[in-house]
Write a structure and sequence with these properties.
heterodimer, A: 443 residues, mainly alpha, 2 domains, 2 strands, 69% helix, B: 98 residues, alpha/beta, Rossmann fold, four-stranded parallel sheet
Chain lengths: 443, 98
Protein backbone atom coordinates (compact mmCIF):
# COMPACT_ATOMS: atom_id res chain seq x y z
CA UNK A 1 0.00 0.00 0.00
CA UNK A 2 2.79 2.33 0.90
CA UNK A 3 4.52 1.76 -2.42
CA UNK A 4 1.36 2.66 -4.24
CA UNK A 5 1.18 6.01 -2.54
CA UNK A 6 4.79 6.69 -3.37
CA UNK A 7 4.00 5.94 -6.96
CA UNK A 8 1.12 8.43 -6.91
CA UNK A 9 3.34 11.03 -5.38
CA UNK A 10 6.15 10.58 -7.86
CA UNK A 11 3.71 10.66 -10.79
CA UNK A 12 2.10 13.74 -9.31
CA UNK A 13 5.46 15.46 -8.88
CA UNK A 14 6.36 14.68 -12.46
CA UNK A 15 3.08 16.17 -13.67
CA UNK A 16 3.60 19.35 -11.77
CA UNK A 17 6.96 19.69 -13.47
CA UNK A 18 5.25 19.41 -16.86
CA UNK A 19 2.27 21.51 -15.83
CA UNK A 20 4.20 24.36 -14.25
CA UNK A 21 5.58 25.95 -17.44
CA UNK A 22 2.13 25.64 -19.04
CA UNK A 23 0.55 27.08 -15.91
CA UNK A 24 3.05 29.92 -15.87
CA UNK A 25 2.12 30.67 -19.48
CA UNK A 26 -1.64 30.57 -18.88
CA UNK A 27 -1.17 32.81 -15.84
CA UNK A 28 0.48 35.58 -17.85
CA UNK A 29 -1.75 38.67 -17.59
CA UNK A 30 -2.47 38.96 -21.31
CA UNK A 31 -3.30 35.25 -21.63
CA UNK A 32 -5.56 35.43 -18.57
CA UNK A 33 -7.17 38.55 -20.00
CA UNK A 34 -8.01 36.73 -23.24
CA UNK A 35 -9.51 33.83 -21.32
CA UNK A 36 -11.49 35.98 -18.86
CA UNK A 37 -12.66 38.27 -21.64
CA UNK A 38 -13.94 35.35 -23.70
CA UNK A 39 -15.66 33.87 -20.67
CA UNK A 40 -17.34 37.22 -19.98
CA UNK A 41 -18.86 37.28 -23.47
CA UNK A 42 -20.34 33.77 -23.12
CA UNK A 43 -23.77 34.93 -21.89
CA UNK A 44 -24.13 37.06 -25.04
CA UNK A 45 -23.20 34.11 -27.22
CA UNK A 46 -25.55 31.78 -25.38
CA UNK A 47 -28.48 34.21 -25.52
CA UNK A 48 -27.76 34.91 -29.19
CA UNK A 49 -27.70 31.17 -29.84
CA UNK A 50 -30.98 30.70 -28.06
CA UNK A 51 -32.76 33.18 -30.30
CA UNK A 52 -31.03 31.76 -33.35
CA UNK A 53 -32.49 28.36 -32.47
CA UNK A 54 -35.89 30.00 -32.02
CA UNK A 55 -35.61 31.71 -35.41
CA UNK A 56 -34.41 28.47 -37.00
CA UNK A 57 -37.51 26.67 -35.73
CA UNK A 58 -39.57 29.09 -37.77
CA UNK A 59 -37.53 28.44 -40.92
CA UNK A 60 -37.19 25.31 -43.05
CA UNK A 61 -33.52 25.05 -42.00
CA UNK A 62 -33.56 22.16 -39.57
CA UNK A 63 -35.29 18.81 -39.40
CA UNK A 64 -34.69 18.00 -43.07
CA UNK A 65 -38.38 18.14 -44.00
CA UNK A 66 -38.10 21.35 -46.00
CA UNK A 67 -40.76 22.87 -43.76
CA UNK A 68 -40.41 24.96 -40.58
CA UNK A 69 -40.57 22.81 -37.46
CA UNK A 70 -42.75 25.39 -35.73
CA UNK A 71 -44.67 27.12 -38.55
CA UNK A 72 -46.36 29.63 -36.21
CA UNK A 73 -42.92 31.19 -35.62
CA UNK A 74 -42.32 31.75 -39.34
CA UNK A 75 -43.66 35.34 -39.54
CA UNK A 76 -41.47 36.42 -36.59
CA UNK A 77 -38.35 34.54 -37.60
CA UNK A 78 -36.66 37.44 -39.36
CA UNK A 79 -37.28 39.85 -36.46
CA UNK A 80 -36.18 37.32 -33.87
CA UNK A 81 -32.88 37.08 -35.73
CA UNK A 82 -32.05 40.63 -34.57
CA UNK A 83 -31.61 39.22 -31.08
CA UNK A 84 -28.92 37.02 -32.56
CA UNK A 85 -27.36 39.55 -34.94
CA UNK A 86 -26.68 42.21 -32.34
CA UNK A 87 -25.48 39.81 -29.60
CA UNK A 88 -23.56 36.84 -30.95
CA UNK A 89 -23.28 38.47 -34.36
CA UNK A 90 -21.28 41.36 -32.87
CA UNK A 91 -19.01 39.14 -30.77
CA UNK A 92 -15.89 41.07 -31.86
CA UNK A 93 -17.19 44.30 -30.31
CA UNK A 94 -17.95 42.64 -26.98
CA UNK A 95 -14.68 40.75 -26.90
CA UNK A 96 -12.70 43.96 -27.38
CA UNK A 97 -14.33 45.63 -24.36
CA UNK A 98 -14.23 42.55 -22.12
CA UNK A 99 -10.59 41.70 -22.80
CA UNK A 100 -9.48 45.31 -22.40
CA UNK A 101 -11.25 45.62 -19.04
CA UNK A 102 -9.93 42.32 -17.81
CA UNK A 103 -6.39 43.22 -18.91
CA UNK A 104 -6.68 46.63 -17.25
CA UNK A 105 -7.67 45.02 -13.96
CA UNK A 106 -4.50 42.94 -14.09
CA UNK A 107 -2.28 45.88 -14.99
CA UNK A 108 -3.99 47.87 -12.23
CA UNK A 109 -5.31 50.67 -14.41
CA UNK A 110 -8.84 52.03 -14.53
CA UNK A 111 -11.07 49.38 -16.16
CA UNK A 112 -13.66 51.75 -17.56
CA UNK A 113 -10.96 53.93 -19.12
CA UNK A 114 -9.47 50.85 -20.78
CA UNK A 115 -12.80 49.49 -22.02
CA UNK A 116 -13.76 52.77 -23.70
CA UNK A 117 -10.26 53.17 -25.10
CA UNK A 118 -10.24 49.73 -26.69
CA UNK A 119 -13.73 50.10 -28.16
CA UNK A 120 -12.93 53.46 -29.75
CA UNK A 121 -9.59 52.13 -31.03
CA UNK A 122 -11.37 49.13 -32.52
CA UNK A 123 -13.76 51.41 -34.43
CA UNK A 124 -10.83 53.49 -35.65
CA UNK A 125 -9.00 50.34 -36.74
CA UNK A 126 -11.94 48.82 -38.63
CA UNK A 127 -13.90 51.75 -40.09
CA UNK A 128 -12.76 54.51 -42.42
CA UNK A 129 -16.03 56.23 -43.18
CA UNK A 130 -19.58 56.73 -42.00
CA UNK A 131 -20.90 56.86 -45.53
CA UNK A 132 -21.67 53.89 -47.73
CA UNK A 133 -21.49 54.43 -51.48
CA UNK A 134 -22.18 52.15 -54.39
CA UNK A 135 -24.47 51.55 -57.32
CA UNK A 136 -27.73 49.68 -57.64
CA UNK A 137 -29.76 48.89 -60.69
CA UNK A 138 -33.34 50.01 -60.75
CA UNK A 139 -36.20 48.01 -62.23
CA UNK A 140 -35.39 49.25 -65.73
CA UNK A 141 -31.76 48.17 -65.37
CA UNK A 142 -30.39 51.70 -65.09
CA UNK A 143 -27.51 52.01 -62.63
CA UNK A 144 -28.15 54.48 -59.83
CA UNK A 145 -25.38 55.70 -57.59
CA UNK A 146 -26.19 55.95 -53.93
CA UNK A 147 -24.52 57.45 -50.92
CA UNK A 148 -26.11 56.93 -47.54
CA UNK A 149 -25.10 57.14 -43.91
CA UNK A 150 -23.91 53.79 -42.55
CA UNK A 151 -20.95 51.71 -41.48
CA UNK A 152 -19.64 48.33 -42.56
CA UNK A 153 -20.26 45.85 -39.78
CA UNK A 154 -18.32 42.98 -41.35
CA UNK A 155 -15.56 43.13 -38.75
CA UNK A 156 -17.84 43.31 -35.71
CA UNK A 157 -18.49 39.59 -35.72
CA UNK A 158 -16.35 36.47 -35.80
CA UNK A 159 -14.27 37.87 -38.65
CA UNK A 160 -13.03 40.66 -36.39
CA UNK A 161 -12.41 38.59 -33.30
CA UNK A 162 -8.67 38.13 -33.62
CA UNK A 163 -8.28 41.79 -34.49
CA UNK A 164 -10.39 42.57 -31.41
CA UNK A 165 -8.03 40.57 -29.21
CA UNK A 166 -4.97 42.33 -30.64
CA UNK A 167 -6.54 45.79 -30.43
CA UNK A 168 -7.72 45.26 -26.84
CA UNK A 169 -4.36 44.03 -25.58
CA UNK A 170 -2.15 46.48 -27.47
CA UNK A 171 -4.22 49.60 -26.80
CA UNK A 172 -4.29 48.88 -23.06
CA UNK A 173 -0.58 48.04 -23.07
CA UNK A 174 0.33 51.27 -24.86
CA UNK A 175 -1.93 53.20 -22.48
CA UNK A 176 -0.15 51.66 -19.50
CA UNK A 177 3.23 52.47 -21.05
CA UNK A 178 2.38 56.13 -21.56
CA UNK A 179 0.89 56.50 -18.08
CA UNK A 180 3.93 54.82 -16.53
CA UNK A 181 6.17 57.30 -18.34
CA UNK A 182 4.09 60.01 -16.65
CA UNK A 183 3.20 61.59 -19.97
CA UNK A 184 -0.20 62.63 -18.64
CA UNK A 185 -2.04 65.73 -17.56
CA UNK A 186 -2.27 65.65 -13.79
CA UNK A 187 -4.87 67.54 -11.84
CA UNK A 188 -3.97 69.31 -8.61
CA UNK A 189 -4.95 67.58 -5.40
CA UNK A 190 -8.52 68.14 -4.37
CA UNK A 191 -9.89 67.33 -7.80
CA UNK A 192 -12.20 64.31 -7.50
CA UNK A 193 -10.46 61.12 -8.75
CA UNK A 194 -13.08 60.47 -11.47
CA UNK A 195 -12.48 63.85 -13.03
CA UNK A 196 -8.74 63.42 -12.59
CA UNK A 197 -8.91 60.08 -14.41
CA UNK A 198 -10.67 61.65 -17.36
CA UNK A 199 -7.81 64.12 -17.75
CA UNK A 200 -5.14 61.46 -17.20
CA UNK A 201 -6.60 59.65 -20.20
CA UNK A 202 -6.37 62.58 -22.60
CA UNK A 203 -2.78 62.26 -23.81
CA UNK A 204 -2.62 58.45 -24.05
CA UNK A 205 -6.06 58.36 -25.74
CA UNK A 206 -4.93 60.94 -28.29
CA UNK A 207 -1.71 59.07 -29.06
CA UNK A 208 -3.44 55.70 -29.46
CA UNK A 209 -6.35 57.05 -31.53
CA UNK A 210 -3.92 58.92 -33.79
CA UNK A 211 -1.92 55.71 -34.29
CA UNK A 212 -5.06 53.73 -35.15
CA UNK A 213 -6.20 56.48 -37.52
CA UNK A 214 -2.84 56.53 -39.32
CA UNK A 215 -2.95 52.75 -39.76
CA UNK A 216 -6.54 52.53 -40.96
CA UNK A 217 -7.39 55.80 -42.64
CA UNK A 218 -4.04 57.15 -43.88
CA UNK A 219 -2.29 53.88 -44.73
CA UNK A 220 -5.62 52.18 -45.55
CA UNK A 221 -4.55 49.02 -43.71
CA UNK A 222 -7.57 47.00 -42.61
CA UNK A 223 -6.36 44.76 -39.77
CA UNK A 224 -9.40 42.45 -39.49
CA UNK A 225 -9.53 41.89 -43.26
CA UNK A 226 -5.78 41.28 -43.38
CA UNK A 227 -5.96 38.84 -40.45
CA UNK A 228 -8.89 37.03 -42.03
CA UNK A 229 -6.90 36.60 -45.22
CA UNK A 230 -3.87 35.13 -43.50
CA UNK A 231 -5.84 33.17 -40.90
CA UNK A 232 -8.37 31.67 -43.29
CA UNK A 233 -6.10 28.78 -44.36
CA UNK A 234 -5.10 28.18 -40.70
CA UNK A 235 -8.78 28.18 -39.71
CA UNK A 236 -9.75 25.59 -42.25
CA UNK A 237 -6.78 23.31 -41.66
CA UNK A 238 -6.92 23.56 -37.85
CA UNK A 239 -10.49 22.26 -37.77
CA UNK A 240 -9.68 18.62 -38.43
CA UNK A 241 -10.13 15.25 -36.78
CA UNK A 242 -6.47 14.94 -35.72
CA UNK A 243 -6.29 18.34 -34.00
CA UNK A 244 -9.64 17.72 -32.32
CA UNK A 245 -8.56 14.31 -31.00
CA UNK A 246 -5.24 15.77 -29.90
CA UNK A 247 -6.94 18.59 -27.99
CA UNK A 248 -9.36 16.20 -26.25
CA UNK A 249 -6.60 13.76 -25.33
CA UNK A 250 -4.23 16.43 -24.08
CA UNK A 251 -7.02 17.94 -21.99
CA UNK A 252 -7.83 14.59 -20.41
CA UNK A 253 -4.16 13.82 -19.87
CA UNK A 254 -4.04 16.93 -17.68
CA UNK A 255 -7.25 15.81 -16.00
CA UNK A 256 -5.68 12.42 -15.35
CA UNK A 257 -3.04 14.24 -13.37
CA UNK A 258 -5.85 15.99 -11.52
CA UNK A 259 -5.50 19.31 -13.31
CA UNK A 260 -8.29 21.19 -15.04
CA UNK A 261 -7.25 20.37 -18.61
CA UNK A 262 -10.02 22.30 -20.31
CA UNK A 263 -9.17 25.45 -18.37
CA UNK A 264 -5.46 25.10 -19.10
CA UNK A 265 -5.94 24.76 -22.84
CA UNK A 266 -8.73 27.35 -23.10
CA UNK A 267 -6.54 30.42 -23.79
CA UNK A 268 -5.13 28.78 -26.91
CA UNK A 269 -8.19 26.88 -28.11
CA UNK A 270 -11.07 29.22 -27.23
CA UNK A 271 -10.36 32.11 -29.61
CA UNK A 272 -10.56 29.61 -32.46
CA UNK A 273 -13.61 27.65 -31.41
CA UNK A 274 -15.52 30.78 -30.41
CA UNK A 275 -14.77 32.32 -33.80
CA UNK A 276 -15.82 29.08 -35.52
CA UNK A 277 -19.01 28.97 -33.51
CA UNK A 278 -19.80 32.56 -34.47
CA UNK A 279 -19.07 31.78 -38.15
CA UNK A 280 -21.36 28.76 -38.03
CA UNK A 281 -24.20 30.68 -36.41
CA UNK A 282 -23.84 33.54 -38.89
CA UNK A 283 -23.98 31.03 -41.74
CA UNK A 284 -27.09 29.50 -40.18
CA UNK A 285 -28.78 32.89 -39.87
CA UNK A 286 -27.99 33.55 -43.54
CA UNK A 287 -29.30 30.12 -44.55
CA UNK A 288 -25.87 28.97 -45.77
CA UNK A 289 -24.07 25.66 -45.11
CA UNK A 290 -22.15 25.62 -41.80
CA UNK A 291 -18.39 25.92 -42.42
CA UNK A 292 -16.94 24.37 -39.24
CA UNK A 293 -17.22 21.04 -37.42
CA UNK A 294 -15.11 21.68 -34.28
CA UNK A 295 -17.08 23.97 -32.00
CA UNK A 296 -17.66 23.87 -28.27
CA UNK A 297 -20.71 21.56 -28.26
CA UNK A 298 -18.72 18.95 -30.23
CA UNK A 299 -16.30 18.71 -27.31
CA UNK A 300 -19.19 18.07 -24.94
CA UNK A 301 -20.41 15.14 -27.07
CA UNK A 302 -17.20 13.13 -26.68
CA UNK A 303 -14.89 13.07 -23.67
CA UNK A 304 -16.98 12.79 -20.51
CA UNK A 305 -19.74 10.80 -22.21
CA UNK A 306 -17.21 8.05 -22.93
CA UNK A 307 -15.28 8.24 -19.65
CA UNK A 308 -17.03 9.54 -16.56
CA UNK A 309 -20.50 8.38 -17.62
CA UNK A 310 -19.58 4.72 -18.28
CA UNK A 311 -17.53 4.83 -15.08
CA UNK A 312 -20.62 5.85 -13.13
CA UNK A 313 -22.52 2.89 -14.59
CA UNK A 314 -19.67 0.56 -13.65
CA UNK A 315 -19.61 2.03 -10.15
CA UNK A 316 -23.33 1.35 -9.71
CA UNK A 317 -22.60 -2.27 -10.68
CA UNK A 318 -19.50 -2.51 -8.48
CA UNK A 319 -19.20 -4.93 -5.56
CA UNK A 320 -17.36 -2.22 -3.63
CA UNK A 321 -19.87 -0.41 -1.47
CA UNK A 322 -18.30 3.03 -1.51
CA UNK A 323 -18.25 2.92 -5.32
CA UNK A 324 -22.03 2.60 -5.30
CA UNK A 325 -22.39 5.32 -2.66
CA UNK A 326 -20.12 7.69 -4.57
CA UNK A 327 -21.90 6.97 -7.88
CA UNK A 328 -25.18 7.91 -6.26
CA UNK A 329 -23.74 11.11 -4.75
CA UNK A 330 -22.03 12.05 -8.00
CA UNK A 331 -24.97 11.25 -10.29
CA UNK A 332 -26.86 14.57 -10.19
CA UNK A 333 -23.71 16.59 -10.89
CA UNK A 334 -22.45 13.96 -13.33
CA UNK A 335 -25.48 14.28 -15.60
CA UNK A 336 -24.55 17.94 -16.04
CA UNK A 337 -20.96 16.86 -16.78
CA UNK A 338 -19.60 18.21 -13.51
CA UNK A 339 -17.07 15.47 -13.15
CA UNK A 340 -14.95 16.44 -10.16
CA UNK A 341 -16.66 14.04 -7.70
CA UNK A 342 -15.73 11.03 -9.88
CA UNK A 343 -12.40 12.51 -10.90
CA UNK A 344 -11.17 13.00 -7.34
CA UNK A 345 -13.54 10.79 -5.37
CA UNK A 346 -13.11 7.43 -7.10
CA UNK A 347 -10.44 8.65 -7.94
CA UNK A 348 -10.00 8.59 -11.69
CA UNK A 349 -7.19 11.13 -11.42
CA UNK A 350 -3.80 9.54 -10.72
CA UNK A 351 -5.37 6.10 -10.85
CA UNK A 352 -2.75 3.99 -12.64
CA UNK A 353 -5.19 1.15 -13.43
CA UNK A 354 -7.70 3.47 -15.08
CA UNK A 355 -5.22 5.64 -16.98
CA UNK A 356 -5.15 3.51 -20.14
CA UNK A 357 -8.93 3.21 -20.60
CA UNK A 358 -9.37 6.89 -19.71
CA UNK A 359 -7.10 8.05 -22.50
CA UNK A 360 -8.13 5.32 -24.94
CA UNK A 361 -11.83 6.14 -24.53
CA UNK A 362 -11.06 9.79 -25.07
CA UNK A 363 -9.20 9.08 -28.31
CA UNK A 364 -11.81 6.67 -29.68
CA UNK A 365 -14.81 8.81 -28.72
CA UNK A 366 -13.20 11.92 -30.22
CA UNK A 367 -12.62 10.13 -33.53
CA UNK A 368 -16.14 8.66 -33.51
CA UNK A 369 -17.74 12.01 -32.65
CA UNK A 370 -15.87 14.07 -35.23
CA UNK A 371 -16.16 11.22 -37.73
CA UNK A 372 -19.93 11.09 -37.27
CA UNK A 373 -20.12 14.67 -38.56
CA UNK A 374 -17.60 14.02 -41.36
CA UNK A 375 -19.60 11.13 -42.80
CA UNK A 376 -22.78 13.19 -42.50
CA UNK A 377 -24.43 10.99 -39.87
CA UNK A 378 -25.16 14.07 -37.76
CA UNK A 379 -25.50 17.79 -38.51
CA UNK A 380 -23.00 20.45 -37.48
CA UNK A 381 -23.59 22.75 -34.53
CA UNK A 382 -24.76 26.33 -34.95
CA UNK A 383 -25.72 27.25 -31.36
CA UNK A 384 -23.78 27.64 -28.16
CA UNK A 385 -25.50 26.47 -25.00
CA UNK A 386 -24.30 26.48 -21.38
CA UNK A 387 -21.52 23.91 -21.10
CA UNK A 388 -23.24 22.09 -18.24
CA UNK A 389 -26.25 21.20 -20.40
CA UNK A 390 -26.48 17.39 -20.42
CA UNK A 391 -24.93 16.21 -23.73
CA UNK A 392 -27.99 14.25 -24.87
CA UNK A 393 -30.01 17.50 -24.72
CA UNK A 394 -27.16 19.78 -25.85
CA UNK A 395 -26.48 17.78 -29.02
CA UNK A 396 -29.94 17.96 -30.58
CA UNK A 397 -30.63 21.48 -29.25
CA UNK A 398 -27.43 23.00 -30.63
CA UNK A 399 -27.64 21.35 -34.05
CA UNK A 400 -31.32 20.61 -34.62
CA UNK A 401 -30.37 16.97 -35.20
CA UNK A 402 -31.87 14.37 -32.87
CA UNK A 403 -29.32 11.78 -34.07
CA UNK A 404 -26.75 13.34 -31.71
CA UNK A 405 -28.46 11.28 -29.01
CA UNK A 406 -27.28 8.18 -30.88
CA UNK A 407 -23.71 9.49 -30.99
CA UNK A 408 -23.77 10.19 -27.24
CA UNK A 409 -25.18 6.72 -26.55
CA UNK A 410 -22.54 5.19 -28.80
CA UNK A 411 -19.81 7.00 -26.87
CA UNK A 412 -21.18 5.68 -23.58
CA UNK A 413 -21.13 2.13 -24.98
CA UNK A 414 -17.59 2.58 -26.34
CA UNK A 415 -16.42 3.87 -22.98
CA UNK A 416 -18.17 1.05 -21.15
CA UNK A 417 -16.51 -1.63 -23.31
CA UNK A 418 -13.06 -0.04 -22.96
CA UNK A 419 -13.33 0.60 -19.21
CA UNK A 420 -14.96 -2.73 -18.30
CA UNK A 421 -11.89 -5.03 -18.02
CA UNK A 422 -9.77 -2.35 -16.34
CA UNK A 423 -12.50 -1.45 -13.91
CA UNK A 424 -12.87 -5.11 -12.91
CA UNK A 425 -9.15 -5.17 -12.05
CA UNK A 426 -9.55 -1.97 -10.06
CA UNK A 427 -12.64 -3.35 -8.34
CA UNK A 428 -10.81 -6.54 -7.30
CA UNK A 429 -7.87 -4.52 -6.01
CA UNK A 430 -10.23 -2.34 -3.97
CA UNK A 431 -12.07 -5.39 -2.55
CA UNK A 432 -8.74 -6.91 -1.57
CA UNK A 433 -7.61 -3.68 0.04
CA UNK A 434 -10.82 -3.41 2.05
CA UNK A 435 -10.56 -7.06 3.11
CA UNK A 436 -6.95 -6.58 4.24
CA UNK A 437 -7.92 -3.50 6.15
CA UNK A 438 -10.74 -5.42 7.88
CA UNK A 439 -8.39 -8.24 8.89
CA UNK A 440 -5.87 -5.69 10.12
CA UNK A 441 -8.50 -3.98 12.25
CA UNK A 442 -9.77 -7.26 13.71
CA UNK A 443 -6.31 -8.37 14.79
CA UNK B 1 -14.09 32.12 10.23
CA UNK B 2 -14.63 33.21 6.64
CA UNK B 3 -13.61 30.51 4.16
CA UNK B 4 -13.10 31.03 0.44
CA UNK B 5 -13.08 27.96 -1.83
CA UNK B 6 -11.42 28.23 -5.22
CA UNK B 7 -11.96 26.10 -8.30
CA UNK B 8 -11.98 26.58 -12.06
CA UNK B 9 -15.36 28.26 -12.47
CA UNK B 10 -16.73 27.99 -8.94
CA UNK B 11 -19.21 25.30 -9.97
CA UNK B 12 -18.00 22.09 -8.34
CA UNK B 13 -16.89 23.81 -5.13
CA UNK B 14 -20.34 25.29 -4.69
CA UNK B 15 -21.56 21.70 -4.25
CA UNK B 16 -19.05 21.29 -1.46
CA UNK B 17 -20.23 24.40 0.37
CA UNK B 18 -23.58 22.90 1.27
CA UNK B 19 -21.83 19.87 2.75
CA UNK B 20 -19.47 22.08 4.73
CA UNK B 21 -22.26 24.25 6.08
CA UNK B 22 -23.75 21.17 7.74
CA UNK B 23 -20.72 20.87 10.02
CA UNK B 24 -19.73 24.53 10.21
CA UNK B 25 -20.50 26.94 13.04
CA UNK B 26 -23.34 29.32 12.56
CA UNK B 27 -21.11 32.38 12.39
CA UNK B 28 -18.89 30.82 9.70
CA UNK B 29 -19.11 32.22 6.22
CA UNK B 30 -18.25 30.01 3.25
CA UNK B 31 -18.17 31.10 -0.39
CA UNK B 32 -16.85 29.70 -3.67
CA UNK B 33 -15.34 31.56 -6.59
CA UNK B 34 -13.22 31.16 -9.70
CA UNK B 35 -9.46 31.61 -9.42
CA UNK B 36 -9.61 34.72 -11.58
CA UNK B 37 -11.90 36.43 -9.05
CA UNK B 38 -9.56 35.91 -6.13
CA UNK B 39 -7.81 39.27 -5.99
CA UNK B 40 -11.15 41.05 -6.06
CA UNK B 41 -12.76 39.21 -3.15
CA UNK B 42 -9.90 38.06 -0.93
CA UNK B 43 -10.17 40.87 1.58
CA UNK B 44 -13.56 39.51 2.71
CA UNK B 45 -12.09 36.18 3.79
CA UNK B 46 -9.75 34.73 6.39
CA UNK B 47 -8.48 31.68 4.58
CA UNK B 48 -8.40 30.31 1.05
CA UNK B 49 -8.79 26.63 0.13
CA UNK B 50 -7.93 25.56 -3.39
CA UNK B 51 -9.51 22.72 -5.41
CA UNK B 52 -7.06 20.11 -6.70
CA UNK B 53 -7.89 20.75 -10.35
CA UNK B 54 -6.48 24.27 -10.20
CA UNK B 55 -3.41 23.46 -8.14
CA UNK B 56 -1.30 24.53 -11.10
CA UNK B 57 -2.37 28.05 -10.11
CA UNK B 58 -1.32 27.54 -6.50
CA UNK B 59 1.75 29.74 -6.88
CA UNK B 60 -0.15 32.82 -8.01
CA UNK B 61 -2.97 32.14 -5.54
CA UNK B 62 -0.48 31.97 -2.67
CA UNK B 63 1.13 35.18 -3.83
CA UNK B 64 -2.20 37.00 -3.81
CA UNK B 65 -3.16 35.49 -0.44
CA UNK B 66 0.18 36.32 1.18
CA UNK B 67 0.11 39.85 -0.17
CA UNK B 68 -3.18 40.27 1.68
CA UNK B 69 -1.90 38.56 4.83
CA UNK B 70 -4.13 35.53 4.28
CA UNK B 71 -3.31 31.84 4.23
CA UNK B 72 -4.01 29.47 1.34
CA UNK B 73 -3.86 25.67 1.17
CA UNK B 74 -4.73 22.90 -1.24
CA UNK B 75 -7.84 20.87 -0.44
CA UNK B 76 -7.40 17.17 0.18
CA UNK B 77 -8.02 15.58 -3.22
CA UNK B 78 -9.91 12.51 -2.05
CA UNK B 79 -12.09 14.45 0.38
CA UNK B 80 -12.76 17.00 -2.33
CA UNK B 81 -13.89 14.32 -4.76
CA UNK B 82 -16.13 12.68 -2.20
CA UNK B 83 -17.49 16.13 -1.38
CA UNK B 84 -16.64 15.34 2.24
CA UNK B 85 -17.52 18.63 3.88
CA UNK B 86 -16.41 17.54 7.35
CA UNK B 87 -12.83 16.76 6.32
CA UNK B 88 -12.47 19.96 4.30
CA UNK B 89 -13.96 22.00 7.13
CA UNK B 90 -11.46 20.47 9.55
CA UNK B 91 -8.71 21.36 7.12
CA UNK B 92 -9.98 24.93 7.14
CA UNK B 93 -9.97 25.03 10.94
CA UNK B 94 -6.41 23.76 11.13
CA UNK B 95 -5.22 26.27 8.57
CA UNK B 96 -7.01 29.06 10.43
CA UNK B 97 -5.36 28.13 13.74
CA UNK B 98 -1.85 28.08 12.26
Amino acid sequence: MKNKKDFFESVSDLTMKIAEPIAAFTEKPWISAIRNGMVATMPLLIIGSFFLVLAALGRPWIGGTGLPLLPFLAPYSEDILNLFRFTMGFVGLYVVVAIAMSYAAMLKINEMTAGLLALATFFLMTLDSTTLTGTVKDAAGIAIEFSIGGIRIGSFGAAGMFAAIIVALSSVKIYKFIVDKKMTIRMPEGVPPNIGNAFTALIPYTAIFALAWVIRTLLNFDLPVWLTTILQPVFHTADNIVMFTLRMTLGNLFWFFGLHGDMMLAPVVNPFIVAWMAENSAAMAAGLPLPFIWVEPLMRMSGWTATVWPLMILMFMSKVRHHRTLALTALPAGIFTIIEPIMFGLPLALNPILMVPFLLSTVVSSIVTYGAVLIGFVDRFFALLPWATPPFILGPAASGDIMWVVVVALNVVIGFVIFYPFFKVFERAELKRIEEKRIEENK
Amino acid sequence: MRILLICAVGMSTSLLINKMKKVAHEEDYIEACAASELSRVIENFDIVLVGPQVRYKMKSIEEIANANGKKAALMDMKAYGEMNGAVIYKQAQELFKK
